[in-house]
Design brief:
globular; 16 helices; alpha+beta
């Protein structure tokens, strides 16, 4: 992960640039094509800001027909395409290509249908995650997956990365809350999968598309499941003298058969940063802080709160506070959801990792991360979706100090290897993108990767959709039988870092 290679345009492609821009402008007229260097700068990076790459050209379609015609043109003329939502990706999944069209879907920003009877909403992919809840909350409904970036991230991007959030423990990830998709293939064909019904006949193409990181098609319409707001929701703040005690409390709560609506954990650096940013009332002397939310009928919530308090005390909790109002509950969560920007106030730069582990391994992993922090000489602030084992260590560094970014990347790689070592996976919700691309052989052997690439080939035989992402070495479809994956770092120095 210490470098990154994205293909540079060859001479023939550069010579064709004006021709490609003209062709795209004919399909998406007016201000639908951006080709000036200055105007394209906002698209040169996504949320993984360690790298930047100016796009070849940017196109902003407004209709499904335009998406279809653009993709068909690119297919017929062997032009690469990178689909992009709001650009909040944290794995480089929306990083542009110097020789490919960047297709922004943010003009697809309409709520198309609200069907309370079937508890479904049909939206375009540029609608924000929070925008779905805003559209239905007047009737007491909401959309459950809630990434920390929900005010900005698009539902199309959530589909690409299979995003989660603080309430995914009980209510699932994006894949558990999506009912239907309209997708345009690289050939320009428009297909539909799923719908408002709860299950579909045939292969589960919906699950295949969710989390496919823009490698299989471009989503132009999404049908999601909405839920009735719980009768009661209360949150509990629990402080601990060590992260290990907090981690054990998480494991014991789940082992007791209690599934909270959300269960999040922060360590001391994250607690202090969030408290200074939001003033949520967090205990500053705690080494670890759990936020546990119970929801449902009031009697059930009251009973479960008592059970969780008992488990917390058995794990040597040093602080307990239960929300007494909806405003106080929201304040508890405000600090957690602002943890990422809050940490940005205590360090010039930070590198946000994303891995998932079995809950029982949390104490061991936390102890090992402290050792790695000392080894690399870089501090780390930990923010976890603790209930489902999804870790978000924030490695603190200064990009202006020579070598610190490389150390942060190596530190991050070791954390992800540790996740796999204890029985976890490389990503929980941020995707593979380019960040974890060269670590895929840590988890998958050559046969596994070949099978995944064959799925890619079934949708995109020319490998034009978002190439350079997910797979460490993508072979031509005809060569998969003799594919070789190089395990280790690849020297990819050609993209300048911030």
């Amino acid at each position: 992960m210490s470098g990154l290679m994205m293909p540079k345009p060859d001479a023939a492609t550069l010579e064709r640039r004006d021709e490609i821009v003209r062709a795209l402008s004919a399909i998406v007229p007016g201000e639908g094509v951006i080709s000036g260097e200055t105007e394209m700068r906002p698209y040169e990076s996504d949320g993984l800001t360690a790298y930047r790459q100016l796009p070849f050209v940017v196109v902003l379609p407004e209709t499904v027909d335009q998406v279809s015609r653009v993709l068909r043109y690119c297919y017929e003329n062997d032009v690469k395409v990178v689909p992009r939502g709001a650009g909040t990706s944290l794995s480089g999944g929306a990083l542009p290509l110097a020789d490919g069209v960047l297709m922004s879907m943010m003009k697809f920003n309409q709520v198309l249908e609200i069907d309370f009877a079937n508890r479904a909403v049909v939206v375009q992919p540029g609608v924000t995650n929070l925008g779905i809840t805003r559209a239905v909350e007047h009737e007491g409904f909401y959309y459950a997956p809630d990434p920390s970036s929900q005010i900005a991230c698009s539902i199309g991007g959530n589909i690409a990365e299979n995003s989660g959030g603080v309430h995914s423990l009980k209510y699932g990830l994006t894949t558990n809350n999506v009912l239907g998709l309209e997708v345009v293939l690289i050939t320009g064909e428009v297909i539909r999968m799923g719908g408002k019904h709860l299950d579909s006949e045939g292969y589960d193409m919906l699950a295949l598309m969710t989390g496919s990181e823009g490698l299989l098609g471009v989503v132009t319409e999404v049908t999601v499941r909405i839920l009735r707001k719980p009768e009661t929701a209360r949150a509990l703040l629990v402080g601990f003298a060590s992260s290990e005690d907090g981690g054990q409390c998480v494991a014991d709560v789940i082992a007791a058969g209690i599934i909270p609506g959300g269960m999040e954990m922060m360590d001391k650096p994250a607690i202090h940063a969030a408290e200074a940013f939001v003033n949520a009332g967090y205990p500053l002397d705690a080494e670890a802080l759990l936020i546990v939310e119970l929801d449902g009928p009031e009697a059930e919530v009251d009973h479960l709160l008592e059970r969780v308090e008992e488990i917390a005390r058995a794990n040597k909790s040093t602080y307990l506070r239960v929300s007494t109002s909806e405003e106080e509950r929201n304040t508890f969560w405000a600090g957690r959801k602002a943890a990422f920007p809050a940490v940005g106030r205590i360090s010039p730069d930070y590198y946000c990792m994303d891995g998932t582990i079995p809950r029982k391994a949390l104490p061991r992993v936390l102890a090992r991360m402290r050792e790695l922090s000392e080894h690399y000489g870089l501090a780390v602030a930990n923010v976890f979706h603790a209930g489902d084992g999804n870790l978000h260590p924030l490695i603190l560094y200064d990009a202006n100090v020579p070598g610190e970014l490389e150390k942060a990347e190596d530190f991050g790689s070791d954390i992800l290897r540790l996740c796999v070592e204890v029985g976890g996976v490389l990503t929980g919700e941020h995707g593979v993108g380019v960040e974890k691309r060269d670590l895929m052989p840590e988890m998958f052997n050559e046969v596994d990767l070949a099978q995944q690439m064959r799925v890619k080939c079934a949708f995109d035989e020319k490998q034009l959709l978002n190439p350079g992402k997910v797979f460490p070495q993508l072979r031509r479809c005809a060569e998969l039988g003799r594919m070789h994956i190089h395990k280790g770092k690849l020297p990819f120095p050609d993209i300048p870092r911030f």
